[in-house]
Structure formats: structure tokens, C-alpha cells
Amino acid sequence: MCGVVTMNIPIIQTSLIKFGQLWDKNISDLIYKVVEKLDLTDVDAAFVANVYHHATGEELHIDNTACINEEGASGAMALRQAAASIMSGQCKCAIVLGVEKATDLTGTHLNNISSLPTEEKSQGATVSSQFALMAQKYMHEYGIKPADLASVASLNHKNAMQNPYAQFASELSAEAILQSPMVADPIHTLECAPHSDGAAAVVMCHPDSASSYKVQGHFTASLIATDYENTAQRASLTSLDATKKCAKQISMKISKAEVYDIYPISELLAVEDLGFAKKGEAWGFIKKNKDMINASGGLKACGHAVAATGVRQAIDVLSRLKASEHGLTHSLAGTGRLSVVNIFKK
Amino acid sequence: MIGITGYGAYIPKYRIKAEEIAKANNADPSIPKSILIEEKSVPAADEDSLTMGVEAARIAIKDIDKSRIGAIYCGSESKVYAVKPNATIVGEALGIGPNYSAADLEFACKAGTAALQICLGLVKAGFIESGLAIGSDTAQAAPGDILEYSAAAGAAAFVVGKEKVMAELEGTCSYATDTPDFWRRQLQKFPSHAEQFTGTPAYFKHVVACTRMMMEKLDLTEKDIDHFAFHTPNGKFPLKAAKLLGLPKEKIEKNLLVSKIGNTYSAASLLVFTHILDQAKPGERILVTSFGSGAGSDSFVFKVTDQIKKIKQKTTQSYVDEKEYVGYAAYSKCVGLLR
Amino acid sequence: MISIPYAWRNNRSALAGSFCNACKLTWYPSSKACPACRNSTNPVELSGKGTIVSITTVHESSMPFMLAIIKLDEGPQVTAQIVDTPAAAIGSKVVACLRRMQSDGAQGIIQYGIKFRGV
Q: With left for phi above 0 and alpha for psi between -120 and 50, is residue A143 left, alpha or beta?
């Protein structure tokens, strides 16, 4: 199981580069830019999350550097490992840096190197096709329509209009989504989270040194669970066990959640698997609790600079919490082989 | 008693009409009409001689003890590799082996009957208990060539053995000469042919001589034979062969599939044979004569036994009837003209 | 680039599954150890018959194709293409067929695998 340890890790600095198609920037450029305004004097450990480029983080010149690749859950995993490292005494003050240059790779290449098992890849399956299969089953069982799925993405765009860091702070109607080319039925091009470039960083320290810094919030719990990499082998197509197992360990009231909306269906499943809504009722819940789920605009509107996303989600959820409120970030690897849920408190 | 102990057919689902091919080539649609071809089978882009052979063989071996199959011989002029046999890929896919003799054979459209003849020989000699013979092709033809109307895809498979024989082998013989009627050079994509020369000196000479020899060898007249299965390069040739042999037209015509599926090359005469077996009654006699360009014919006479009544499987006719039409563009993609 | 030893070891042309005596579960494709409990398994030949659990049409390809998750009669589920069956839907009965999956360019080996079509 998840083995939850209650932490109280102070978050003392954050930095975010707006995700986008940053053609003129290399990995190094993104790293330099995201740490530009940070004070790294006391930082004695670095956790560098990157999926597509084997980024080393050498730009930081920190001996205690670890690189993390868990696909979409890389950033969240890096935060988790940094907190554990601090608590173990291996370091006093850690920077977690997620960075990605997804636009260097074509869509075909991204599909080829995804962590789908060979059994599925050899059949032409992609991350999109497997989530499409989940969506088809979900629609069949709960009566949700493609227009509802499109509206999930549309709502995230509406949320993003308040977010200066969102890649797409603009309206996108469900109709426009439904008219865009089909990727894998029922998923249309315009409801897929884009693959973006970007970087996000968070600096955290040991609770004993908190008084030396301006504390923005606390990292209070990290939950993790796994499931089969092969979508067909999992117990259900309409929920992700990995997320459900994480949710079992959540003991506090969650006021805000940044969930992994790589496609609308993954947002709906997350809302149900995290225990916010009953099966089949996620969309109703999201509409009723407008400021709670993906208030930043989610992966869809903020962009998805893969390894940086988990760190961006942490920054975004923390910034929107009121004092004493708890918020969570939810990240997935592949099509649900791993879920990491990180909890923060203002 | 040795003979057929299992059989199976496979014809891909897709069809293209001859008039559609004529239209695409700005040709006269009376040409395919004159050779009695209405439409032909088209393999899907992910099908080939191997996949079709396996599908036919799966049906053929369904009631057979796989552990006693001692040979797999595959006849094709569209082998999936130039070097690496279809036969072992078939063995692996069906869970046969590893104790079997295997090879692929080429003799144009009679490679499948050559495979059958070899398996019969191995069983009769006592070298193996049971043998699997497959004739399978995804025939190629250059766009605009007359062969394009008939070059089709299909497979037939037979298990030969001594137990529960459903069609007993009464005799087999062959006739071969060096006749350059149709050929394909190494690394060439499409075959070449000698047009009118493919008739009298090739198809008719060999089919007639071999069939006559077979009937004389067994002292049979046409009255002793209920069904004839001749190679079907088009709808006209088998009927003309029947005429040359003095055979009643309907004994050949009733079992022809070629106008609806085209010429399936190594599977052609064998699919007529499976079609006959689907309908045959105990005691009936079947004569099969194939023809392979280059050139040669194999003839077989089988007598149907009571075992045939136990057969319950998808019929050749149902494969002929289950179809979906495609246009010339889709056909081109399927057979790789646009690769 | 297809790894020859990998392709040979993971040949998916036969309907070969595995049965775990401890879990009483059948797995496809075959696995020497049970994916659930890691106990050793016995080989079992599957019928190739199954039912569609979910199905989509994938357009991220040179030609759209149907992809489904199929529950085989013996129990295991598999992601596989559906061929020759435009009307396939959730609940449709299907049967395995051997098809050409991919080849390593014009010179490399050809890989065969199992797809499904409606009965």
C-alpha cells in the first residue's frame, strides 16, 4: 500500500515558466530561466524530472543530484523523493525541477517511445487509443456523451482565462472541439492536452530550518500506487485502481485539486477515483464545484510539459489555497500504471 | 487406406468487380466478361499467403492430433520471404512441431497440389503418420495487364493420413514439360506471360494429357467420376478442357468458383476440391487436375467415404458469399500497388 | 529496429496462454510466472474466442483501424485490432485470426500476430 507518512515540509520558493512551443529554447535554456530568480545558496540536493531528453541538471552544479523519469508522474515523483530525502537527513534543502522539450519530438515519435507494453504497441495502440477505450466503456455504462467530454476540456479553458501562466488562456467551445479531427473515437484533437515545452521548480527545506525562510505552504503527504502497465490487464476500464489506492489514504478535507486531465476522460475518472464523486457523476460534480477541480486550467489549458507538470500542478494548487486549506495534485504515468497524489497545505 | 483426413479453405472478405478494374485502366469491360470473370478476392493489407494458409490449416487440423503431424509443405508463388519458409511459420502458429519435415514449394499454380502429392507419398511410405499440405497465394499482376482481372487471393489446406480418411486416394500422376507460358524473374514484382501461348501448348496440353493419363491408369470413364476439379485461371479454360476431354460440361461447371473469386493460383484447383468435399456424398469419386505454368499438372482421384458425413465446418461457399466490395483505390493499397 | 532474439522469444502467432494453478487464472499472452502471484504456470492453448469489452477507431495512423479490448472466453483480456467487421461493438463475439503485424522495413523480418474478427 501507500505507507503514508505525515510530513510538514516547508515550500520556500517556487518558479514557473509559462508552457508553450518554445522553439528557441534548449533544455539548458529552460533550466537557466526557471532558476534565474531563485536563491540556490542553501540548496544541497537537486531532483531533476525530465522524460524525453535525459536532462542531467548539471546546470545547477549540485553534487547531490538525482534524475527522475516516470513519464507524466515525473514531477510529482520528484517532489515525493525530495521530501523523503529531506526527512531521511540526506539533504537539508532540495530543489525539485521539472523540465521538458516535448516539441522537439514528433507526435509519432512520442507514441513510439511511450511506456505502453509491447503487447499493446504492436497492435497500434497509443496512450490516446487506450484512454479512448476507457471513454467508450464509460460512455456505454454511464450515458455520458462525447459533447460532455468536450465540455470538460472547454471548462478548463474557461478556468485558464484567469491564469497568466496558461499556454491557452482563451475560450474553446465544445462545438469547436467536436469539429476538430478525431484522434481515437471519441477523443478529438482539441480535447487532448498539448505536448509542450516548459519548466517549473520548487525549493523545499527541512521543517527545522523553516524559520530562516519565507514559507509559502507545506508539503504534507505523498501517496503512490501502481497497477499493470497493460490497460487490458487491469480490473476496470472505468476507474484507475492506482488512483483509487492513493485516495484510500487521504484523511483530510481537500479544497482544491489539480488532476491529470491528459484527456477529459482521465479528469472524470480522477474525480471519481479520488473519492470526490460517485461512479458516473464526475461531470456533475465538476460543474457544481466550479473552483475546485483544475482551477488553473489543467493540463489541457496550461499545456503539458510532461515532467514539469507535476511541479506546475503543485505550484498552482498551493497558490489557490486559502490559509489552512489542503489541496492535492494528481499525476499518472502511461495510461494508469502509476499514480502519485501529493498533498499541500497553505 | 490413405487419403484426406481434414481440409479447410480461406478466402479473404474483400472483392473488386472486374468492371471496376476495367474502368480504372480505361479498358473495355467486355474483356473480363469474355473470360467469365465477374469479380475477384482482394486480401486485406495485413493478409498474405502465410496468414491465409494458417486460417485454412486451422480448420483442416481441428480434429487432428497435432503431435502426429510429421510434415508441413506449403505451395505458393507469393511466399512471404524469398528465403525463409512459410512452412515453419505455419507450424509455430498452429502449435505443430518440432518433429516435422517442411519446405515451401514453387511450381506456379500447381505448388499446392505438389505439396499434397508429397504428403501423400510420405504417408504412403510410412515415413510420417500425418502430413499438412497448403496451397496459398496473394497473386500479383501488373496494373493494366489482362491478368489483373483474375489475380486473386485464397488458401486451401489438407491433412493427409491413414485414420478416419474421408476421401481415399485411389491414384495420382503428374505430367511436366519445360514450357515458358508464364514466369517471374528474381526480384521482379509482377509476372510475365506469353498471352495466347498460355492456352493450347500450356494449360490445355498438360491438363488434358494428365487427366487422360489418370483416368487410363485407373481404368475410369467419365461415368465413374462424379466431380472434376480443374485449375481455374479464368472461367473459360476449365470448360474448354472439359470439352477437349469429352466430359459433360456440368460435371466441371457446377463447382466453379472462379467467376466470383478469381484465380487463387496455388489454391485454385484445391478450393474447387474443398468446395466439392463440402457437398460430396459417400461413394462419390472426385478427380482433381491442377496446372502450374512452366509447366505441369498433377492429377488425383479420390473416393469419398462415410467419414465425410461427420464434417461440420465453415464451407468454401460461405467464404465466397461473405464479401465486401472495394474500389480500385482501396484495392491498390491492399495489394501494394501504391507502396 | 526489431530485436531478432526479442521477436523470436515473444512470437505471438500461436494462441498460447498460461494457467496459474495457485490463482486459477488464465493469462494471455503466455508468461512463465503468473503476473498476479509469480507462481509458475502451465501452458494452455486458447480457443481464440472472445467478446468485445470496449472498442474505438484509431485515426492516428496512415489508415484508420479498429482497436478493442477483448475478454477471451478463458478469462484474460487483450488489446487487439478488429478486422473485417465494420459493425463491431461492445458485446460483439469475435474470434482470433493470424495477421501480418509489422515488418522491419523491406529487408527485415516480418512479425505476425493475433487480431480478431467478428463471428
A: left
